[in-house]
Amino acid sequence: xxxxxxxxxxxxxxxxxxxxxxxxxxxxxxxxxxxxxxxxxxxxxxxxxxxxxxxxxxxxxxxxxxxxxxxxxxxxxxxxxxxxxxxxxxxxxxxxxxxxxxxxxxxxxxxxxxxxxxxxxxxxxxxxxxxxxxxxxxxxxxxxxxxxxxxxxxxxxxxxxxxxxxxxxxxxxxxxxxxx
Length: 180
Fold this sequence. Notes:
- By secondary structure, the protein is α+β, with helices and mostly antiparallel strands.
- It folds into two domains: 4-67 and 168-179, Alpha-Beta Plaits; 72-164, Alpha-Beta Plaits.
- The chain is built from three helices and eleven strands.
- Strands 1, 2, 3, 4, 7, 8, 9, 10 and 11 form a nine-stranded mixed β-sheet that branches.
């Protein structure tokens, strides 16, 4: 039976178990998960938070991570600026990035979600508004969500992956995990 771990990755944690460059400076998964033979199914950047799936099943890992399966990934994104419908429509149609056109995204403006505080906190600027969107994509290019929001004039301030497929971090505090 395949093992599947749902981990709520905190900001600043690397999506690997070791860091040969600076293990004392950048925390890795080994500081949170002491389960042998599980590996991340996909990645989350150092400055992104939220759901990271780990498994001991290579086929399941490929099915989750491989873009050809188009598994939906939903993010809660705090953006700089006020998310207007014109920008959201561009995301819904797909955005041209340096590595080509993205697939259309599902996106909506949302009220600030009741998330845990981030450490360090997101910078606050009195003169620049911010807003929140819920964005679902079905591919997984490098830093894709950040590049998409920037392309429509809404730079990302905070990025939390909320779900992958039917799996979610609902009820899992940052730095904690549970088996699916």
